[in-house]
Amino acid sequence: MAARIRKAVFPVAGLGTRFLPATKTVPKEMLPIIDRPLIQYAVDEAIEAGCDTLVFVTNRYKHAVADYFDKAYELEQKLERAGKTEQLELIRNVLPRGVRAVFVTQTEALGLGHAVLCAKPVVGDEPFAVILPDDLIWNRGAGALKQMADAAEESGASMIAVQDVPRDKTGSYGIVATEDFAERQGRITAMVEKPQPADAPSTLAVVGRYVLNPRIFQLLESTRPGAGGEIQLTDAIAALLAEETVNAYRFRGTRFDCGTHIGLIEATIRYALDHEKLSDAASGLMQDALREMGVTELQ
Ligand code: G1P
Description:
By secondary structure, this protein is α/β, with parallel strands linked by helices. It has helices at 38-48, 63-69, 73-81, 85-92, 112-118, 120-123, 144-155, 215-221, 233-241, 261-273, 279-292, and strands spanning 7-11, 32-33, 36-37, 53-58, 100-105, 128-131, 135-138, 158-164, 174-182, 185-193, 204-212, 246-250, 254-257. It has one domain (7-287): Spore Coat Polysaccharide Biosynthesis Protein SpsA, Chain A. The chain contains eleven helices and 13 strands. Strands 8-11-9-10-12 form a five-stranded mixed β-barrel. The chain has a two-stranded antiparallel sheet with strand order 2-3. A hairpin with a 2-residue loop joins β2 (32-33) and β3 (36-37). The radius of gyration is 20 Å and the shape is globular. The structure holds 1-O-phosphono-alpha-D-glucopyranose. 1-O-phosphono-alpha-D-glucopyranose binds at residues 112, 132, 135, 173-174, 193, 205-208, 232-234, 259. Belongs to the UDPGP type 2 family.
């Protein structure tokens, strides 16, 4: 048995240029699926996995993220006076009691690996999680990070979430080679960031959930810029493989790439169809829209 993760790192300093002009003022992590921003889904997943310290790696354009997790005294008072207890609970539970948020600044956009390294002073010498809020994972059972944290606690190995992707998409992901895959886990033997399809060692792609041993920080300190001229987390993990076991973990759940327009749309549709109050209306509207736009003939 290894130590249970208690800290989760959220790299949220990206520019989000794909969603301009919205992201001119709204950080992409604040884009909502129905009524909750992407960052809330990520935070809830970390808390469910057992984390009580949330480390946001941010920059000066992302005040909205810090404001969101701050206490909204005036709003709370107003809701309290108006007897709106349901809404009051909603805003209070953005950050449940006993969970703390820590904000760390990444002054230069030097890459995901560099963002994770910025969290070192807060994480210290214990295993921790990294969650990329763009990767939203929908689940009916335990969340993806909880599944991985349980497995990591059992074995002591670092865990990287993976899923199969079409070969022509390998250039968008970290890709792993594995051996001894049993049930959901396999030992990673190689890891490469955004390889061309012809050079990819497999079609098993890294999804934005990691459980890492703190040794990664030292390796990140000596990681040179890699793919795209950025300091890549993938390259530091590739170095970690030489020293200890790192497992790929095929999580249960459906992942939506909310860093793209179509992924955000897909996630919105899924959450609407799964929503206890909106499901019927949403499904009716979707069918009407398809019919009216002549997109397809529904049976
Ligand atoms: C990052 C990682 C990549 C991973 C991906 C998952 O890339 O560098 O290894 O596969 O997230 O979403 P990004 O999408 O930030 O370019």
